[in-house]
Amino acid sequence: GNSVTQMExxxxxxxxxxxxINCTYTATGYPSLFWxxxxxxxxxxLLLKATKADDKGxxxxxxxxxxKETTSFHLEKGSVQVSDSAVYFCAxxxxxxxxYKLTFGKGxxxxxxx
Amino acid sequence: xxxxxQTPKFQxxxxxxxxxxxxxxxxxxxxxxxxxQDPGMGLRLIYYSASEGTTDKGEVPNxxxxxxxxxxxxxLRLESAAPSQTSVYFCASSDTSGPPPYxxxxxxxxxxxxx
Lengths: 114, 115
Fold this sequence. Notes:
Distance between the termini of chain A: 41 Å
Radius of gyration of chain B: 13 Å
Oligomer: heterodimer
Low-confidence stretches of chain A: none
Order of helices and strands of chain B: EEEEEEEEEEE
């Protein structure tokens, strides 16, 4: 079945540091890939997405590239801010079929200190 | 445009009590979902509804029932609450009537404690 593995947290960085959160997946076919962000006390918000190999999703300074050869979708940001402190979830949606559910990783807590 | 709304925000139940969590979306989405979020477990799908009038089990359906009341509303019912159902519950919706990727939009969550 489908699965998503993302790096265990928590991750603690200083403001303006470089961020990488690793995400790898197992799925059949060509899944769509997502990063969601959950700020404290809130629901999940879509951060970025990619639907095919070599696609790069980007939003708010975050980027992730769909790498089919390594089955990865790592999240990066060049300079984090305190306001980026949140839990980040990698997720996939399998291609085809009538099952529209997302498979989520367990989440990575990011804390950015001033 | 409120997106996905959930009520209540917080709830405390005693073991054996029942309750219904309400969810509504105003984006005209055809698919809706219920997840639970537990520490270290990520989100796990309880039930989903691909369209009005249909519902299907997800990964962890035991102890829950759902009703897709109309296109806008999708409720989750706990008939006899147990401490293992203490969790944060999220409702989500997506437009699956067109091409992928079918990103989901989430409500703010309901924090449920069962004592």
